[in-house]
Amino acid sequence: MKAEEGQARAFTVLAVAAASFSMLQSLVSPVLSTIQHDLGTTPNAVAWVLIAWLLSAAVATPILGRIGDMIGKNRTLVVALSAIVVGSVVAALAPNLDVLVVGRVLQGLGGAVFPLTFGILRDEFPAQRLASVVGAMSAVIAVGAGLGTLLAGPVVALGGWRALFWLPAVVVALTATAAHLLVPASPVRAGGRINWLGAALLAAWLVALLVPLSMGDQWGWASPAVIAPLVGSVVLLAAWVVAESRSGHPVIDMRVMRLRGVWTTNLVALLFGASMFAVYAYVPVFVQTPAAAGYGFSATIGEAGRLLLPALVTMALGGVLSGPLAPYVGLRAQLASGSALIAASCAGFAFVHTSAWEIAVESGVFGLGLGIAYAAMSSVIVQTVPPSQTGAATGMSTNIRTIGGAIGTAVTATVLAAHPGPSGLPAESGYTTAFVVMGGAALVGMATSFAVPAARRAAAREPVAATPVEPGAGPVPDLAPGAPASAAVRAGAAG
């Protein structure tokens, strides 16, 4: 009973930590124009409030995830949460945009909360409960991202935009204290050291890729400022793969990335992220468009958030049900069905959007697909990789989803810009085309899901071993989701 109580306390702390970080992006996005006006800056400049957070999180997530695998996930979690607190205070007190961007960079270091959370769940919960708790945590993360859009308007109305930073500062400070007291020390540690060349190359190719993807619509996709870093990102990516493959202490073990359950799921994550982030970004913009444009509902920030409220409910439902359904509806089928629901909702957004209730229903379908697919995706990664690689592997999966989101958002912005309306706003046909493209990405993700290996149910009941894969132990064999990591460890050592 005491063990179960300790697990419940740890899960609660981790859930609050994960939800708090997942809100940090969507909480700020709806009020960028308010921040721009208050700080006297330009739309192009204020965009760095989002981009700085994105870049920082992308770089920190796998690196700190790896450090957590090495020295202890609980200790690294407290450090990541502390970075969020410091960054939130700096942002709340920022007298100008430059200081605000610095605060957002510090907040972004908290991106490691996601992989560390999944790693701690892997360490603390028995194998037979792992799918359920991972699904529930995935639901918390997905709901947190949507909740930010819902809360942004009321929070700003009550306390101004700076309250968007004071609120997480207080909540996360309390959570960091609770994490220090209640989250157990990691029983599984990989040891070793960081390959700093690999870490630097990882940071370099991520920045070279994400900056032009984020700014391409403003800088021009054919401009040297976009083309040069994109080409550079390909070169740096190749150099990173070579460096990590040759390293005895890689940040991301390329043998693990080659596991069929990992690379196929990450490919789905790329496509999934493209649809998910684009819907999050542009459905609120669509419903806030003045009705005089021939579409849209002239909704306020708060009203737009409420139209997405059904998605929060169904996201939670989908994530919570994913684990219990796994013995009957495998993770591969869940990935495919979740992607299909997202595709159906995008089709609805594209062609059925004359009434607010239609958007609300489509939002609910989107949320259900998101909750199911997100939970299944996380479960496949967590159950496929060795325990000592959980933080780094889930961190990299998060990054791949983020890259997909940057691509999807950039494509959507480009499509809308190519369909100008007479009022200066995008034409309705632009949104129709953009939502069709998002739905197409989800359909490709659904097809890709069938390449994910099916779980072996009997193996899923075996205990998960705590033995790490040592560098140089030979290739890690393919491992079906749900199979114990000990199988990979034994076969890898034997090879």
TrEMBL record:
<feature type="transmembrane region" description="Helical">
    <location>
        <begin position="365"/>
        <end position="386"/>
    </location>
</feature>
<protein>
    <submittedName>
        <fullName>MFS transporter</fullName>
    </submittedName>
</protein>
<feature type="transmembrane region" description="Helical">
    <location>
        <begin position="163"/>
        <end position="183"/>
    </location>
</feature>
<feature type="transmembrane region" description="Helical">
    <location>
        <begin position="101"/>
        <end position="121"/>
    </location>
</feature>
<dbReference type="InterPro" id="IPR036259">
    <property type="entry name" value="MFS_trans_sf"/>
</dbReference>
<feature type="transmembrane region" description="Helical">
    <location>
        <begin position="195"/>
        <end position="215"/>
    </location>
</feature>
<dbReference type="Pfam" id="PF07690">
    <property type="entry name" value="MFS_1"/>
</dbReference>
<feature type="transmembrane region" description="Helical">
    <location>
        <begin position="307"/>
        <end position="328"/>
    </location>
</feature>
<feature type="transmembrane region" description="Helical">
    <location>
        <begin position="431"/>
        <end position="452"/>
    </location>
</feature>
<feature type="region of interest" description="Disordered">
    <location>
        <begin position="466"/>
        <end position="495"/>
    </location>
</feature>
<feature type="transmembrane region" description="Helical">
    <location>
        <begin position="43"/>
        <end position="64"/>
    </location>
</feature>
<feature type="transmembrane region" description="Helical">
    <location>
        <begin position="76"/>
        <end position="95"/>
    </location>
</feature>
<feature type="transmembrane region" description="Helical">
    <location>
        <begin position="335"/>
        <end position="353"/>
    </location>
</feature>
<dbReference type="InterPro" id="IPR020846">
    <property type="entry name" value="MFS_dom"/>
</dbReference>
<dbReference type="InterPro" id="IPR011701">
    <property type="entry name" value="MFS"/>
</dbReference>
<keyword id="KW-0472">Membrane</keyword>
<keyword id="KW-1133">Transmembrane helix</keyword>
<dbReference type="InterPro" id="IPR001958">
    <property type="entry name" value="Tet-R_TetA/multi-R_MdtG-like"/>
</dbReference>
<feature type="transmembrane region" description="Helical">
    <location>
        <begin position="263"/>
        <end position="287"/>
    </location>
</feature>
<keyword id="KW-0812">Transmembrane</keyword>
<feature type="transmembrane region" description="Helical">
    <location>
        <begin position="398"/>
        <end position="419"/>
    </location>
</feature>
<feature type="transmembrane region" description="Helical">
    <location>
        <begin position="221"/>
        <end position="242"/>
    </location>
</feature>
<feature type="compositionally biased region" description="Low complexity">
    <location>
        <begin position="480"/>
        <end position="495"/>
    </location>
</feature>
<feature type="transmembrane region" description="Helical">
    <location>
        <begin position="133"/>
        <end position="157"/>
    </location>
</feature>
<feature type="domain" description="Major facilitator superfamily (MFS) profile">
    <location>
        <begin position="10"/>
        <end position="457"/>
    </location>
</feature>
